[in-house]
Amino acid sequence: MLPSHLNGHSPLARRRPRLSAASPPAEAGTASAAAPLDEHDRIYFQSYSHIGIHEAMIKDRVRTDAYHTAIMQHQKFIEGKVVMDVGCGTGILSVFCARAGAKRVYAVDASEIAIQAREIVKANNLSDKIVVVHGRVEDVDVEEKVDVIISEWMGYMLLYESMLPSVLFARDKWLKPGGLILPSHATLFMAPVTNPERYEGSVDFWSDVYGINMSALVPLAKKFTSEEPSIETIGGENVISWPSVVKHINCYTFTPEEFKSITAKFKVSSMMLAPLHGFGLWFEVEFNGPAESSHNTPSSLNPLDIIQKKRRRGSDDAVLLSTAPEDEPTHWQQTILYFPDPVEVKQDQIIEGSITVSQSDENPRFLNINLECLYLAHGAFIGLKFYG
Ligand SMILES: C[S@@+](CC[C@H](N)C(=O)[O-])C[C@H]1O[C@@H](n2cnc3c(N)ncnc32)[C@H](O)[C@@H]1O
């Protein structure tokens, strides 16, 4: 079954985009006015009042360990400083920061989970350090500017849920110059994928069901498989080329305006003869200080650099939270955009096209994805559109 969290019907969504206010980009040191809380926000914040969503996130050790390690790595910066945890949930990151020596942590969350976060803070004798603020970060008032902003804002394929504009709002309104943002950088990748087992399991399956020919359902199955992004775990063996960077985000400089629509071209070469079933998307985030942020500009960044950097991890002290197919699975899994029909690609065949990911006007919680792909050897063209 396709996951319901991307189809717009489930009230319980870990990841839903929110439309940033249609306002001019923020000037340095100022935050643009926030859009008023609407019905989409209400449903979104309500989804975070369920314990299951917090359990899934906290039990994702790849995620939670990465944040814990990053906080400890920046302990010298955090010690004695003021932190804002944008979207604190249960308060786990706020507690990590308090234990790392923060003088004060403003733990902000608009969901009812903030009520439990306050109790958790009390039960851990941290009420003198952690101030839980129940409200939208766009609306709350705290007593001082902060030295550090920490937030776990990433959604499926990085951009779903669109919580990043709220973090940028907090940065522009509350972060002192030279302050630290964790995570500091995020990169969205895409690559062509082959997944015969998945295709056979959901499309070919219908040709023989208990000896009954149900092929009449094949067109429906193809439509169902390809009309929405699918959240599933694939492995490195499913990826048939080097990945392409869709977007590299520097959280110190990125603007809410830039978030609204992202377009990238890709041109990759197939490493094998395989049926191409679609494209996979995933992301990585890094936790660098403001000083290191300048050497990771989009122009200097290519997938090979990133992969090399990952291999050096361990000797290198940078924390990298990866949701790539070749890495340990996370609750984000990967996002797959399936074609209705696979296309045979040869080794070294060029696959090129473009992708646009933009926030839906209709429902600010959703994304529209427009993928156009050209297989040079066939001269074939496929256009895929996913509307939120
Ligand atoms: C992905 S969860 C992270 C929770 C927690 N920080 C953790 O790491 O386990 C995101 C949280 O941010 C909150 N949130 C999202 N946008 C927000 C906003 N604009 N203002 C306040 N809270 C927000 C949600 O209610 C949710 O609890």
TrEMBL record:
Entry-linked Pfam families: PrmA, PRMT_C
Composition skew (Low complexity), residue ranges: 19-33
Region (Disordered): 1-33
Superkingdom field: Eukaryota
Residues covered by the Protein arginine N-methyltransferase domain: 185-290, 316-372
This protein's UniProt keywords: Methyltransferase, S-adenosyl-L-methionine, Transferase
MF term (GO), any: histone methyltransferase activity
InterPro entries: Arg_MeTrfase, PRMT_dom, SAM-dependent_MTases_sf
UniProt xrefs under CDD domains: AdoMet_MTases
GO terms classed as biological process: methylation
Keyword Membrane: no
Gene3D superfamilies: Hnrnp arginine n-methyltransferase1 (2.70.160.11), Vaccinia Virus protein VP39 (3.40.50.150)
Protein name: Protein arginine N-methyltransferase domain-containing protein
Native source species: Eragrostis curvula
Organism phylogeny: Eukaryota, Viridiplantae, Streptophyta, Embryophyta, Tracheophyta
